Amino acid sequence: MLIGKVVGTVVASRKEEKLEGVKLLILKQVDVEGREGSNYVVAVDAVGAGVGEVVLYASGSSARQTVITDKRPVDAVVMAIIDQWEVGGKTKYRKVEGELAS
C-alpha cells in the first residue's frame, strides 16, 4: 500500500466496457513525512474519496482485489481515506474538518 493525495479526477466518455461506472482519481504520491512526490497515478476510487483527501492505494495486481475492481483492467485502486498517521510516536497527519493538519 502507498499513501497518496487526491489532486484531480479523470472523465472518459469512451472507455473499455469493464470500466463503465467507476470513478477515476488522479493521485500524487506522498511520503510518510507528508511530503508530496513528483509521481502521479490514476486510480479507481473504491471508497468515495474526493479531491484534497489523503488516501491509501494499492497498485499492480493487488489493485484488482477489491469488490469494485475484481476482473477489471486496473492498475491502481483507492481503498481507504486516511484520518491520521503516526511515525515514531509522532502524529504526522491528522484530518481536521475536511482539511489536513500537521
Describe the structure.
This protein has 102 residues and is mainly beta. The protein has one domain (2-101): EutN/Ccml (OB fold (Dihydrolipoamide Acetyltransferase, E2P), Beta Barrel). It has no helices and eight strands. The strands form two sheets. A five-stranded mixed barrel has the order 1-2-3-5-4. A three-stranded antiparallel β-sheet has the order 6-7-8, with no helix packed on it. Strand 7 and strand 8 (99-101) form a beta hairpin.
Domain count: 1
What is Rg? 14 Å
**Quaternary assembly:** single chain
CATH architecture: Beta Barrel
Task: Round the mean pLDDT to the nearest integer and report it.
Answer: 91
Biggest sheet statistics: 5 strands, mixed, barrel
* Strand-pairing-aware structural class: mainly beta
Sheet-strand content, in percent, reads over 45%
- Head-to-tail CA distance between termini: 21 Å
CATH fold naming: OB fold (Dihydrolipoamide Acetyltransferase, E2P)
Strand order of the largest sheet: 1-2-3-5-4
* CATH class descriptor: Mainly Beta
pLDDT below 50 for ≥5 consecutive residues: which ranges? none
Q: What percent of the residues sit in helical stretches (DSSP H or I)?
A: under 10%
Helix-strand sequence:
EEEEEEEE
Number of helices: 0
CATH homology-level superfamily: EutN/Ccml
Got a strand count?
8
What form results from the Cα inertia axes? elongated
The gist of it:
It is built from no helices and eight strands. The chain has 102 residues and is mainly beta.
